[in-house]
Amino acid sequence: MSTRVRWLGHSAIHIETDGVHLLIDPFLTGNPTAAAKPDELPAHFILVSHGHADHVGDTIPIAQRTGATVIANFEISQWLQKHGLDKVHPMHLGGGHDFPFGRLKLTIAHHGSVLPDGSYGGNPAGFHLFLKDGSKIYDAADTALFSDMRLIGEEGIDLALLPIGDNFTMGPDDSLRALNFLTPRQAIPIHYNTWPLIAQDPQAWASRVRETTRTTPVVLDPGGSIQLR
Ligand code: NI
Ligand code: MN
Fold first, then answer.
1. How far apart (Å, rounded) are the C-alpha atoms in residues 132 and 45?
2. Number of domains in the chain
3. Alpha-carbon distance 218 to 169, whole Å?
4. Which ligand is nearest to the CA of 25?
5. Ligand 2 being an ion, which residues bring their Cβ within 5 A of it?
6. Is CB count within 10 Å lower at the N or C end of the chain?
7. pLDDT for 88-146, tens place per residue?
8. Domain, as residue range, for 105
9. CATH number of 33's domain
10. How does pLDDT run across 21-49, given as a tens digit for each residue?
């Protein structure tokens, strides 16, 4: 039983849990901080949080090459089917489902979701994963702070993935407030330093996390990973 979480830069995440490979928001082509190429990543499942190009990213070519099932909200799932993918699993906010890797629940996120060609992308989502080895991971994806993060925290979080870039999502100040709602054991900052507009100092953020929350900050370089179990 083991779970490893690898940050690929921006919001792209690779989770390997008991031999099952999950990719979240695999934006690699055009991502100046990408730590992997889309044609080298294994994938059984690809999770897409919302329609923006920096999250849909390389989903279609990776799914075509690997045969991975793409999990996204209903509207994005339909759009992916129109673009040639047949293995899609539509879900929506508040809904959970048991997959071979464990249970996944879609959480609310306050953001936009239009798809790269202007199509409607439904409401943006976050992901709460309850993996079979017991690891609980919450990926907030792109969102503002919201007080219902308390409710997500009540379900238990070992590792939170939180945006800290500011401008398009919550910034460092609100991410600290989010951690006090979510109370995860560990947190990895994402969605920063991809472009100058979302530049942040992750070590300064980590110091503040240690001072003002009960969470252990884990700052990774793109390509870096942590073992959960
Ligand atoms: Ni976005
Ligand atoms: Mn984004």
1. 15
2. 1
3. 19
4. 2
5. 54, 142
6. N
7. 999 999 999 999 999 999 999 999 999 999 999 999 999 999 999 999 999 999 999 99
8. 3-228
9. 3.60.15.10
10. 999 999 999 999 999 999 999 999 999 99
